[in-house]
């Protein structure tokens, strides 16, 4: 019988021929596993991990949205103008935007499985400080601490969502985004039910949410730690039909511009919609917060739908629709009545938020070896620019009116025309 030549069972040589007999060809042969498990396979119970990271995103963004939701209380208690309100948004979003790409770049090279739990600790202390702040500078520091927690949380959590996706990247990103969007929508509702009746000190109660998030993220870190070793063996090869490096750079700039237009419009509603409703229609603060909750809830639903639609029909199509599709509704909003405004904001939230998952996954596929940095850039820089825009809009509102601000912002979705410069990705990338 011819002799079977094989290397050590734990590391069979790949570059040598293996001679087998005819009987061996017929009989079933057990071959040792040569390839390391991919992140998607190593994820194990992917849906459990996705549920955990989405829940953590929900808790994280619920706490963050409290900052904008308590603006009327802070404005009345400390006689703040709109420019100072905008600076609070800037302190929160600029801190997050400045550090998120840095965190993402660092974790691309050296992942830290428990960094998410540590980052949530900054949010915990930020909320406690905000609950006892008596000076405007302390309020800014508290907002910056919450932003710091966001900077640590988003890049690595987006990476974990992709690792647990099982190849359904848009779906996984949508599940992740759903938690954050729904958490953002809960802020005004909780502020109306808890913070408005019980005052600024009641913000400290929400630190218990941060503690729960720390526990969940620590458990996710235990799952993530072995995935870090597994993903080091996964080779990333560029598709032969992938766009050139020059087109990739142009596409990334376009994607940042598109996300900026979306985020600035959402930021204008999140930061000033309450004041717009109070000023134009004379509603109470609690009623205005409920109307804001309606918009943010629609925003959450749209964020979830965008990813699966991108997986099915292509991300570029979803990006086109979600940015430009909101334009007719944003143009009509400044001239609508109270109830019509509520209906319009539902359509705006559903349509404009569906682009987030598609933009982020599109960018990740353009630069597949820099998931953390790309996630940090799009969660951080674009959102930070949105915070800077919110401060500018606050200054504009002081010199004109809130109604004029929404007349100007109505044209922001027109920036979606830049999507024409996005390249067509290979089908295998989708």
From TrEMBL:
InterPro entries: MFS (IPR011701), MFS_dom (IPR020846), MFS_trans_sf (IPR036259)
Domain of life: Bacteria
UniProt domain Major facilitator superfamily (MFS) profile: residue ranges: 49-428
GO cellular component terms attached to this protein's record: plasma membrane
Keywords: Membrane, Transmembrane, Transmembrane helix
One function term, GO molecular function aspect: transmembrane transporter activity
Transmembrane domains' residue ranges: 82-99, 111-130, 136-154, 175-196, 202-222, 250-275, 287-305, 317-336, 342-362, 374-397, 403-422
Name of this protein: MFS transporter, FSR family, fosmidomycin resistance protein
Originating species: Bradyrhizobium lablabi
